[in-house]
From TrEMBL:
Compartment(s): Cytoplasm
Biological process according to GO: aggrephagy; autophagosome assembly; mitophagy; piecemeal microautophagy of the nucleus; protein processing; protein transport
EC number: 3.4.22.-
Alphabetized UniProt keyword annotations: Autophagy, Cytoplasm, Hydrolase, Protease, Protein transport, Thiol protease, Transport
Family: Belongs to the peptidase C54 family.
Ranges where the Peptidase C54 catalytic domain occurs: 42-384
Function text: Cysteine protease that plays a key role in autophagy by mediating both proteolytic activation and delipidation of ATG8 family proteins.
Protein name per the record: Cysteine protease
UniProt KW Protein transport keyword: yes
EC primary class: hydrolase
MF GO annotations: cysteine-type endopeptidase activity; protein-phosphatidylethanolamide deconjugating activity
Amino acid sequence: MQQIGHQILSKWYQTNYNYRALFQYEVKEEGYIMGQLIERNEDILNVVIHTIRFTYRQGFQAYQCQDSALTTDSGWGCVIRVGQMMMAELLKRHLKCFYNVDLFSIPRLLQEVLQLFKDDDEMESQKGFVRPSKYGFSIQKIMRVAYKEWGKKPGEWYSPNQIVQAIYKILSENNITYCCGLGFVPFYESQIDLRAIFQEMCMVENCCCQQRTFSIEQFLRALEKLEIGKEEVVQVMHGNDSISDVCYDDQSEQNKKEIGNLIKKYICQKCFIPIRAVTVCLLSRIGCDQPNPDYIQAIRQFMKKKYFAGMLGGRPKEANFIVGFVDNKFVVLDPHLVQEAKMNPEEYIKSCFPGEALFMSDKEIDCSLGLVFYLNNMDDLIELIYDIQAHQQINFFSFAHLQHWKYQETKKEEQLQNIKEMKEFLSEFQVQQQQQQILNLEISTYQEAHQNEIEYFDQQPILKEIDSSYEEI
Ligand SMILES: [Zn+2]
């Protein structure tokens, strides 16, 4: 019975999916996906098909941990899948920005990175397991952590906070190869502790040279005096007049320079030297029942930034990985498609990429979400500080000193050595690899294939009816 239910669900998702796959979507106003400007529909597809997507899987061996007999995560694993998508995007970004390696130019590397999310993690599934699995972010691994932390059983739904916490645990307790040189800081309730970001980026807790202090408090007081939020208001009031736009750009560059100066003044430059990238995951609520339109506007501003690395969100009880926006819609990668867990390696890789972009009205979004920012260096951090100040008039985020945050001492020398080795390893990888393409990710192929589907689904019952049949299931 359960099996039949999954089949119906799967069919529904596939139908609904293709129906909504708006390949011929014409961009009317503006769009940004993963920080990249979208001007034509080809741009949407181009970014989306290079973003790793994970979906429900069926047919893996039963999760033997906690004596579960489940062989699929269909119907309950969507938040976990969204968490995996976040992590995959971060790894792709990290390799690109920090190590200067394009994942798509080295198929073997891509394969290895995807292996970290392997669906049939037999090592984790074994009872009484002793060695940690090499598959860093497999669903089994995530479940094991969640069971240990919250007694969560297979088949139970996760909140965005829980998946972020589980990933944070995995990252801080394991040495996962490609995560070398990447810090991860989760923040809850829209509060950001800059101290934590500096500490993670520079891998040092405090100034130890005694010459200068590490004073976030003084830094924040001085930052307030710059009155950054105010120009933004003036700019909005004056509209899009080109002259005031130029003034505004100059002003924002000037402000960023001043933020840089404040950092030099209040944060010891001798002890705080950035040595690694940091991911900031901001978990927030943007309303009680309905999302606050002002907050949605602020989110759209953040999505334009190059440090934007996706958003955990979706509709209520239906998680999606939100990758950007076009006009008044969010662009999402949907995990609610059931694929087979067992595939040959090439098929598996292809199954980890979406062939379509889905859209979701910004009013439908669930109020609980998590913005993900990848900060490669100090410039990115300055940019983020500026942007948060510029949006403060709606109190979206605030800087705070979080008592519960404690910097976890990690061996800095060891980390530096690992980063160096990783650089060498990746450059060898690049040399060895012939530039053969095993992936067929050309836009034209997708457009052609889906053009037929769009025509086919044009003759199908309207979306409303498909929706109501889903509710009956
Ligand atoms: Zn110092």
